[in-house]
Amino acid sequence: MKILLLLFLVSWAIAHPTGESHRDKRQAAKLSTKWTNGQVNYYFGGTPLRDRRPMILNQMNYIQNRTCIKFVENKDAWQRIKIDLNDFTSCRSKVGAPGSRSNPGGEEVLEVGHCAIIFGTHIHELMHSLGIIHEHQRPDRDDKLNISQAEVVRRGLQIDMGIANWGTTSLLTPFDHGSVMAYDINHYEPPIMSAKDKDSDYTLGNRRVSFHDMYKVNKFYECSCPKELPCQNGGYTNPGDCSKCNCPRGWFGALCNEAPCGGSCVLQAKPEWQTKTVNTSYQFTGDNMDGFTSYFHHIQAPYGMTIEIKIEKLDKFICRSSCNHNGIEIKYRMDHTTTNPLICCLNEKQPFAQKVISSVKNPTVIEVYSKDRTEPAAATFSYRYIDEAIRFG
Ligand SMILES: [Zn+2]
């Protein structure tokens, strides 16, 4: 029986790589409501084969460490969620706190039995519970995504794939292909969604949790600190710990003005190509259980020079949409606070990754990451700078 169940679960997970049910009929049922004072009361129910509680508690901590949201275990609270761990439950949540805006309170059930065992899937469901909709259902999503409306209607997916016009909460931050709230392009088979920016196709569905995911929660709940810090590089004072800033990926220190590894991971570009190999393997660092470990570098050039990067080799990388096993993010675009295109393939699936990537940023952040339970992997890239003034002068 257990083997049969496992086989069923494995086949289900393959069919639904992001882990979420597409049968949720309640998502757009009500305007999203907020938890009073940002306090989410919860309790666990059910007895699963695998105890997900440590993983879920870890992901709650991830949110708490970066926002003013607090998770409190209290099954008698007037406003609460039951986190149903049973294996035969789905993977879904109501959007917003229990009750309605005019009559908040009561109990909602957050089903996690079929959520994929990967960091970010429970954050996705918890964010629904906080009132956040899917990234691909934002009112502005048609600027960024191609979604076959005919297929949506034909397959009856209007609720999961339609625009949530009431979901203006999502507009508090820019559209982010790397949001934990976006589906993988292969969530449905055959696919019905792709990115208008082809280079971002494999970024959709990534589960690392983006900078803007937490920023959106902070804005929706109007989280703040008594004193604003002078955060740099797009960071903002962290309502989860007012003594430091929340930083975009690749920037460190209390004020987001420090390079990775205390400065020892800065690569000085020259006019000629140099090569660097970054080895990655998962390490538990506090709030990334079943999650990702990232290795950051800055590539730096003299003022006014343009940095170029070429991926030379991806060793043991798993080439799959959403780049959820290993990947590289190069912050080469103007907006480094949103997720730049993720790379996990060096073939025709990601043609842009085979070319020289020209960056508008100096320094340019380059991140190589690996997920728990993937083999150690390595990425090799080359970098240099060119003088655009000479080329175009
Ligand atoms: Zn969802």
TrEMBL record:
Its cofactor is Zn(2+). Its main location: secreted. It comes from the Eukaryota. It is found in: Secreted. The active site is at E125. Disulfide bonds join C68-C223. GO terms for biological process: molting cycle, collagen and cuticulin-based cuticle; proteolysis. The keyword Secreted applies. GO terms for molecular function: metalloendopeptidase activity; zinc ion binding. Binds 1 zinc ion per subunit. Zn(2+) binds at H124, H128, H134. Keywords: Disulfide bond, Glycoprotein, Hydrolase, Metal-binding, Metalloprotease, Protease, Secreted, Signal, Zinc. Residues 26-224 form the Peptidase M12A domain. PANTHER family: DISCOIDIN, CUB, EGF, LAMININ , AND ZINC METALLOPROTEASE DOMAIN CONTAINING (PTHR10127), ZINC METALLOPROTEINASE NAS-19-RELATED (PTHR10127:SF857). This is Zinc metalloproteinase.
